[in-house]
Amino acid sequence: MSKVFDNPAEHRFELPIEGSDGEIAAAYYSIEDGALVLIHTEVPFQYSGQGLGSQLARGVFDKVRARGGKVVLRCSFMGSFFARHPEYSDIVSG
C-alpha cells in the first residue's frame, strides 16, 4: 500500500522520506469546480533522482482512483509521469 497520504489542511499529498528527519516529497493541489487540480510537485533536492517523485505520483493517482475521482494536471512533473503511465487515463481529465 502506498505511503502517500492526503493533507487537505495544506492542500497537498505527502510522501514521508525514509531515513530523513521528517522531510517529505509533496504534490500540491487546488480544488476548482469540484476537480482536483495538481499544480506543483516538490522533492527535496538532496533526494532527487531516487524515484521519490514517481512513487509520490503513483500514490496520488492510486488514491484518486480509489476515491472514484479525476485529476487535472497543471504540474509538468505529473504530466510527464502520466505520459509514461497511460494506464491512469481513466482518472486524468482535461
Automatic annotation (TrEMBL):
The keyword Phosphoprotein does not apply. Residues 5-93 form the N-acetyltransferase domain. Its EC number is 2.3.1.-. One of its GO terms (molecular function) is acyltransferase activity. Keywords: Acyltransferase, Transferase. Gene3D superfamilies: 3.40.630.30. It comes from the Bacteria. It is an enzyme of class 2 (transferase). PANTHER family: BSR4717 PROTEIN, PROTEIN NATD1. This is GNAT family N-acetyltransferase. It comes from Paracoccus nototheniae.
